[in-house]
Amino acid sequence: MSRLVVVSNRVANPHRAAAGGLAVAVRESMRETGGIWFGWSGRLQEETQSPGTEEGVKIETVGNVRLATVDLSRAEYETYYLGYANNVLWPVFHYRLDLAQFDERYVEGYRRVNRKFAQALHALLEPDDVIWIHDYHLIPLATELRALGCDNRIGFFLHIPLPPPLVLAAIPEHAWLVRSLFAYDLVGFQTETDVTHFTRYLEVETNGTQLPDGKFHAFGRSVRFGAFPIGIDLDEFAKLERSREAMDMFDRMREEYSRRQLLVGIDRLDYSKGLPQRLQAFRRLLECHEENLNRATLIQIAAPSREDLDAYDDLRREMDSLCGAINSDFGELDWMPVRYIHRSVARKRLPGLYRASRVALVTPLRDGMNLVAKEFLAAQDPADPGVLVLSRFAGAAEQLKEAVLVNPYDTNEMAEAIHRALTMPIEERVAKHAALMATIRSYDVHWWRRRFLAELESATESAHA
Q1: 465 pLDDT band (50/70/90 cuts)?
Q2: What does pTM read for this prediction?
Q3: Is position 367 annotated as part of the catalytic site?
């Protein structure tokens, strides 16, 4: 059986709870199959030198997984991570060209770090390894590995959205970036919309051709691509629900808010998540539906995210202002409409918070998938479930069609959708939840891993046939 080698920007202990969607999904894959998980250590070389490293790679064995990490220099961090990954690719891929900073120093740093990763990883590889590379930080990694003589099977999965062709083409290096994807044997996206955008880009910007076997030929090479929507591990999440931390959280929320209806939002503090628009819609709800006064409470958790970037300072100030205004305009001595928490909450506590909430607001302006939507549904009591209000621009909306779908740019529509969710009859809530859970069970994290790796094997077999 081939060994699985997973590569992502950051590496997490596969036996510890993780917060982000990528970390959760990859952790579950690695815990079941074992292998190597390779990526950045999260450390900067001038801040700490890792003892016991060989050729810049630190190896740690955790169960059946070897964690292999490398440090970055301050300059590499600023150009590769802060610069190209988060000031170019992240805003452009989330349709925010106004926030992108195109700087040739960034792309050079991005290429240099991917070359550094390839050199470190290549020394660890065995001939039959299957390499699975994740996300926008590492798009050119396969090109660098191929240049070193690597002929292993290599797949790539993009966890964030792929923008339409004209938006993608705004990146000065867009042709090089897309050409890099053709060094892979399989490229995976979250949604069929992403696949459509990729196909249209290739049709418009290249002289490539669609092949009958599902591949596209361009840049002198053929690649297969498709949609592989990420799911959650329901068994693992059920264990979290039964944990002492989750049950304590549920009991405390139910006791403290026994006379209220709880709404919950759990996000990173990121401009893609639509947090100001969500608060404006909640304010409109209180203005237009007075029965929610002294009754509906929104708990909004916004974990710190990329705070080295100016755009996030602006967002934090805006959130502080919006929350303060809502609480001062509508709050009572014994009721604050918004409980805003700008810090991370332990993952073990989240199922209890989900279960105590009548409504979840998952309303990003653009998102790759959003596993919070699926976790909220998994935490509900099937006999008396809460309601998911979901942005139509979240990748999850392609699967979770029975949710209350909203346009996060439309304040009035979103306010009315929240009111509908708060007043939805139990029969409708139960029916929606049952349908949504059937989808979540069918397309869980294990389905995602098995389908992607099976497609990767099939793609490489046909290439060598």
Answers
A1: very low
A2: 0.93
A3: yes
